[in-house]
Write a structure and sequence with these properties.
Blueprint (H helix, E strand, L loop, with lengths): L1 E5 L7 E2 L2 E2 L1 H17 L4 E5 L10 H17 L4 E5 L6 H6 L1 H5 L3 E4 L11 E6 L2 E7 L5 H8 L8 H17 L6 E6 L34 E5 L5 E3 L2 E6 L16 E8 L2 E8 L6 E4 L7 H10 L10 E7 L7 H9 L5 E10 L9 E3 L10 H11 L10 H16 L4
Helix pairs in contact: 1-2, 5-6, 7-8
Bound molecules: manganese (II) ion.
């Protein structure tokens, strides 16, 4: 039986105010072709289908159109989709009865009183599999576990119990290869510096991979945007996003994972996704004077690009020419790019890392994560300059972010 694992599509995402519809469309067309050519029996989408809990109608339409077209080309395909932290559990579940007609199963929420609801026995023409389709777990999904305890459980303990119950339920089914899915931050995973909106920026809520136990033949994860295996196990993997979600992800090698489950074991192979729309930072390395930057822009050769690339330019904060915007705009004239702004960069003298930059373009401030903003606020304050952010303040901020996330306010 052949499985394709992908995640974090973020349909409906705007990238610096530019719609990504065409790019997503190109990816989905590639995916349909790949499902056909690779003769895939089961497609797993491990959360964050949409970028927000209230995606634009065009994004929902895109998902349904993809399922319809794909089923026309691969009538025997089965699809399992779980909700991620960006998705609305309720919204995803609304289409459940209709999607079931297309052998597509969606799981939005985990109920600790009904763990069987996330356990799906899937029967394909090339074999069966039991899938533990665990969606992103919010603290509120786990609260009923607390009633059985004297001490309130931590989030991590609740997540471990949810997997234990679901895996136990799966083990009671007729024997078949076992696949676990999840949308969480597993311990040790590489996180991207500015686009993963999650519970865990401080690191304390990363989940140990031991909760998956040794039972599953494959664990298909979503949430981290960089493709990687977890805890040095080839069969526990993040597929990563199909396209960069931020400038810091522009060098990731985007992929889907092809998993073959046979009697003799599991084989896992990444399949790289073509880049449909380039994400360019100019210059890539150190800042150059304004006139050189304008020259670089004018020299950009974009004739081979199907979709206009995203372009963001970097200008040293020491460059004091006040007409920089006009000059850059002039250089951009006639260039088929989706312009993503000017980053005023100050190389920090006390930083070892050359990549470490200060962002001064206020309009792009939301592209930064709250922790780096806090660090910068400290660095920029004349009374506190040079001091590290106190640990207590860091953890307070994490706590606030957790609470906002739990209430879906971020
Ligand atoms: Mn996520």
């Amino acid at each position: 039986m052949k499985v394709l694992h992908t995640s974090d599509w973020h349909l409906g995402q705007q990238f610096y105010e530019h719609s990504r519809f065409d790019e997503h469309q190109a990816f989905l067309a590639w995916l349909t072709d790949t499902l056909v050519s690779e003769k895939i029996d089961l497609l797993l989408v491990a959360g964050d289908i949409y970028h927000t809990a209230t995606p634009p109608a065009s994004a929902e339409n895109q998902l349904y159109q993809f399922i319809k077209t794909t089923k026309q080309h691969c009538p025997d395909l089965h699809i399992v989709i779980i909700a991620g932290n960006h998705d609305s559990a309720n919204r995803i579940m609304a289409a459940k009865p209709l999607l079931a007609q297309f052998d597509t199963y969606v799981v939005g929420r985990f109920d600790s009183n009904a763990p069987h609801e996330v356990v799906l026995p899937i029967s394909t023409k090339n074999g069966d599999a039991n899938v533990v389709a665990m969606p992103f777990l919010r603290s509120s999904d786990l609260s009923s576990y607390n009633r059985q305890q004297e001490q309130p459980l931590t989030y991590n303990q609740g997540v471990a119990l949810a997997y234990k119950d679901a895996l136990q339920t799966a083990s009671e089914l007729p024997s078949a290869p076992l696949i676990a899915m999840g949308h969480l931050h597993a311990k040790g995973g590489d996180i991207s510096s500015d686009s993963e909106r999650n519970l865990v920026i401080g690191g304390e809520d990363a989940i140990s991979a031991s909760i998956f136990t040794d039972q599953p033949d494959y664990v298909a994860l979503g949430h981290l945007h960089k493709a990687q295996s977890v805890a040095k196990k080839e069969t526990i993997r993040y597929s990563g996003t199909p396209m960069p979600m931020s400038f810091s992800e522009r060098r990731y090698q985007h992929q889907v994972v092809i998993v073959e489950l046979t009697d003799s074991g599991t084989s896992v192979n990444p399949l790289y996704i073509p880049s449909f729309c380039k994400v360019m930072l100019l210059p890539e390395k150190d800042c150059v004077p304004l006139n050189e930057l304008c020259e670089l822009i004018k020299q950009l050769d974009l004739t081979d690009e199907d979709l206009a690339p995203y372009l963001r330019v970097k200008l040293s904060a020491h460059d004091t020419d006040t007409t920089f915007r006009e000059q850059i705009e002039q250089a951009l004239e006639g260039k088929q790019v989706k312009f993503c702004g000017i980053e005023r960069v100050r190389q920090q003298s006390n930083q070892q890392d050359d990549e470490q930059t200060l962002f001064e373009d206020v309009s792009q401030i939301e592209a930064l994560n709250p922790h780096s903003l806090l660090e910068q606020a400290f660095a920029n304050n004349k009374d506190m300059a040079g001091q590290a952010v106190p640990k207590e303040l860091e953890s307070l901020l994490s706590q606030v972010i957790d609470e906002l996330n739990a209430e879906d306010l971020l």
